[in-house]
Design brief:
Layout (H helix, E strand, L loop, with lengths): L1 E6 L4 H14 L14 E7 L2 E10 L5 E9 L8 H15 L4 E7 L3 H6 L3 E9 L2 E9 L1
Parallel strand pairs: 4-5
Antiparallel strand pairs: 1-2, 2-3, 3-4, 5-7, 6-7
Length: 139
């Protein structure tokens, strides 16, 4: 049985997941930032074990929410957990009164976000040499 918990702080479980996925696998160096101190964090548990995470925070200029740092541990991939945690994040953004959700998507996973109803806009940009695209979904 899967469970998603929302937490107001960065936990060691989330640090471990993000380090494994973004630092060890994808070689990002600047994974943790000041947003972690104010974002709402989500942990996805499979059979009581932390398997994935994400964070959400309000956009300063719009009635919208940024969803990011979506990560699923390698051994839990291909189980549709990314969709599960993203749907929970979208539901949370709507419950918080958001009119839209935004992601800074790695271009290689753009089709995943499109499958959830996100639309790409703007030019491709790079974060630590990795191509990204801005994507939004109306809630």
């Amino acid at each position: 049985m899967n469970e998603i918990k929302f937490i107001n702080a960065l936990t060691q479980e989330e640090i471990d997941i993000r380090t494994s996925v973004f630092v060890d696998e994808q070689k990002f160096e600047e994974e943790f930032d000041s947003v972690d101190k104010t974002a709402l964090h989500a942990l996805l548990y499979v059979d009581g074990k932390a398997a994935g995470c994400a964070r959400i925070f309000k956009d300063d200029e719009r009635n919208a929410y940024h969803i990011g740092r979506v990560a699923i541990l390698k051994e839990y991939r291909k189980m549709h957990l990314g969709s599960e945690i993203m749907n929970a994040m979208l539901k949370k953004a709507k419950k918080l009164g958001g009119e839209a959700a935004m992601v800074s998507a790695q271009c290689r996973v753009q089709p995943f976000y499109e499958s959830l109803g996100f639309e790409a806009s703007g030019d491709i940009y790079f974060e630590e040499y990795c191509p990204h695209i801005h994507m939004e979904k109306k809630l």
